[in-house]
């Protein structure tokens, strides 16, 4: 029997928070204000011919979902959530085909563009999609505590791998003795990425940040980094729930427990995500090459093409460390993330191989049974 999960009667926004004006005046902007374009319309043509309508998923909670359609927000069931791989299940930001009616139901997802995926927090071989169809990934770190450059590099690898444009946002600049020095320090570990210090309390950097954010924007960072507070500053409204942070270590409770999407007043949409305790990489080779672009460039100048950047003669990477051009910490971080990424990817490859083998066995058995049935029927 097909499994159909209906949406809960919970409202689109939490109690105590005011929906933004963009929702109440939705028909004026239609789905275009949520990113619908000609390319999506063309890919949706077969679904529209079948009587389905496009919808963008705003929030998912155990198969329950809130969506935006051409006529506005509604709740819908998901008929396919139970039988999908975790990394292909419906996620906030997905575009979907919806069967309208008394009980609206999502029946298919459109191909994704710009997907932020991490290795499952359960350490399984599956990936976990954090946000789909993302254009800009804002990596958020707090200046109220010491900078964790390794964590920022991990998040940047996820962002680059997704195909989105990363931006590093240093929050709580009003609590830092020297925000400019912090921006410079982070910039050294993020070649090619804009780094901006902000303060939701004073408004510092918020307007400049808003100018950098385009399309669908996702906020990525740990609990206590100030993602929801930053989101409210960008939205100009208390649309996202915020919580307190411990003074001793700057960590906060998981106030945001679901990924949720809200429209930005200047255009585009914002996806707020729960704080990330574990930031595991999965098949993020391209992302790592982007994050550590200077090491990749130096490696091309090494005497040996398979240089391990350790004690080999003519190693340009070690020469750069010796001259102060490159820090040893960067190389250590690069090696660590490469090992982790390779391990997680190999687990995924092994799982897919097992799935393929099981499918082949099942197919062979079906063919055998069909042959026997035909023999008996003679």
From TrEMBL:
What are the recorded GO MF terms, alphabetically? GTP binding; GTPase activity; metal ion binding; rRNA binding
UniProt superkingdom = Bacteria
The Gene Ontology biological process terms listed for this entry are: ribosomal small subunit biogenesis
Which Gene3D superfamilies has this protein been placed in? P-loop containing nucleotide triphosphate hydrolases (3.40.50.300), Probable gtpase engc, domain 3 (1.10.40.50)
Database matches in InterPro entries: G_CP_dom (IPR030378), P-loop_NTPase (IPR027417), Ribosome_biogen_GTPase_RsgA (IPR004881), RsgA_GTPase_dom (IPR010914)
EngC GTPase domain boundaries: 132-277
Q: Which residues bind Zn(2+)?
A: 302, 307, 309, 315
Chief subcellular location equals cytoplasm
* UniProt-listed PROSITE patterns: ENGC_GTPASE, G_CP
Q: List the cofactors.
A: Zn(2+)
What keywords sit in the KW lines?
Cytoplasm, GTP-binding, Hydrolase, Metal-binding, Nucleotide-binding, Ribosome biogenesis, RNA-binding, rRNA-binding, Zinc
The record's note on quaternary structure and interaction partners says: Monomer. Associates with 30S ribosomal subunit, binds 16S rRNA.
Q: Which family does it belong to?
A: Belongs to the TRAFAC class YlqF/YawG GTPase family. RsgA subfamily.
Protein name, entry field: Small ribosomal subunit biogenesis GTPase RsgA
* Origin organism lineage: Bacteria, Bacillati, Actinomycetota, Actinomycetes, Streptosporangiales
């Amino acid at each position: 029997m097909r499994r159909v999960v209906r949406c809960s009667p919970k409202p689109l926004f939490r109690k105590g928070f005011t929906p933004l004006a963009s929702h109440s005046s939705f028909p004026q902007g239609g789905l275009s204000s949520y990113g619908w374009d000609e390319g999506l319309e063309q890919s949706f043509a077969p679904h529209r011919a079948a009587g389905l309508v496009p919808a963008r998923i705003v929030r998912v909670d155990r198969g329950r979902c809130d969506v935006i359609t051409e006529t506005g927000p509604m709740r819908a069931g998901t008929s396919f959530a139970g039988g999908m791989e975790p990394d292909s299940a419906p996620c906030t930001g997905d575009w979907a085909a919806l069967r309208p009616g008394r009980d609206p139901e999502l029946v298919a997802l459109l191909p994704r563009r710009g997907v932020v995926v991490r290795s499952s927090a359960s350490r399984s071989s599956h990936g976990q999609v954090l946000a789909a169809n993302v254009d800009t990934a804002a990596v958020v770190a707090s200046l109220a505590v010491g900078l964790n450059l390794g964590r920022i590099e991990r998040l940047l690898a996820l962002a680059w791998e997704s195909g989105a444009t990363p931006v590093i946002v240093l929050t709580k600049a009003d609590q830092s003795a020297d925000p400019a020095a912090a921006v410079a320090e982070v910039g050294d570990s993020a070649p090619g990425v804009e780094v901006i210090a902000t303060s939701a309390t004073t408004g510092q950097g918020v307007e400049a940040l808003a100018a950098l954010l385009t399309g669908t924007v996702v906020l990525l960072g740990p609990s206590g980094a100030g993602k929801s507070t930053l989101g409210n500053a960008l939205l100009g409204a208390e649309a996202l729930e915020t919580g307190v942070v411990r003074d001793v270590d700057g960590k906060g409770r998981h106030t945001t427990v679901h990924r949720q999407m809200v429209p930005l007043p200047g255009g585009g949409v914002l996806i707020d995500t729960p704080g990330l305790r574990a930031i595991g990489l999965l098949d993020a080779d391209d992302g790592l090459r982007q994050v550590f672009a200077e090491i990749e460039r130096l490696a091309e100048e090494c005497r040996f093409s398979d240089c391990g950047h350790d004690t080999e003669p003519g190693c340009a990477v070690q020469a750069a460390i010796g001259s102060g051009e490159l820090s040893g910490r960067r190389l250590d971080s690069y090696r660590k993330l490469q090992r982790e990424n390779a391990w997680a990817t190999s687990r995924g490859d092994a799982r897919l191989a097992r799935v393929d083998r099981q499918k082949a066995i099942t197919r062979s058995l079906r063919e055998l049974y069909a042959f026997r049935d035909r023999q008996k029927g003679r």
